[in-house]
Amino acid sequence: MEKFGIHLLALAHVYLVPQLKAQCAKALIGWLTVENVVDILQLARLCDAPDLYLKCMKVISNRFKSVEETEAWKFLQNNDPFLELEILKFIDDVESRRKSTRKHMQEQSLYFQLSEAMDCLQHICTEGCTSVGPYDRKPSKNRAPCSKFSTCEGLQHSIYHFANCKKRVNGGCVRCKRMWQLFKLHSSICESPDSTCKVPLCRQFKTRGTQVKNNKQEARWELLVKKVVAAKAISSLSLQKRKLEQQELQPRSLEKPSIVM
Predict the structure, then answer these.
(1) Measured at the alpha carbon of residue 207, what is the angle toward residues 183 and 221, in degrees to the nearest 5?
(2) 170: which of 8, 132, 163, 259 is 20 to 30 A away, CA to CA?
């Protein structure tokens, strides 16, 4: 099959033997190399073998720098410009999808980071941590880094800076502006009553939020809030799933072995 696979594929296509054609196409997929992929692509196109054709396209796309150095590619450029254009368009589409996927992953990572920041902010303002906590509770005597959130220490420093900064948001302090946005984001997703939430400015932002604002900036903010809420829900489900898996893996030490008399 390896020696005559190309010839058998052509014959199976001409004489309408679908099973043999499928076997040949499957076998040729396993024998694709940089040197023969262009030739097999042309054959797959002529013999109407879509699976083999797609696999050849992917190999060319992934190893294009090596493929374009081959004699088969140079021959294709001189004799079949339409197929060359088709290949280049496929490569461009693949690269566009990769860029779109990377951008989407980066956005999702940002939403998950903001979701964790919201949980961390709630933890600091409600429970208190190493250096910052609610007004009715003293900071923890334990000076070791927080074990609950990796961003806790940095967020505590930002809160402390926000409380003592002389420039503030109106003065153009970038760090204060970021903290202001985190407080605003918290108020947008906070479900606690105004009287019980201990996060600073939560009540003030909620009061401002009742005012109707029809502008693009507010629409973008609402979209951000929805994305963070969705990320928060996904994180919660993932945490519950991990806890269940850990419980299933724990040995059942509490079960008493049956005694056979």
Answers:
(1) 50
(2) 132
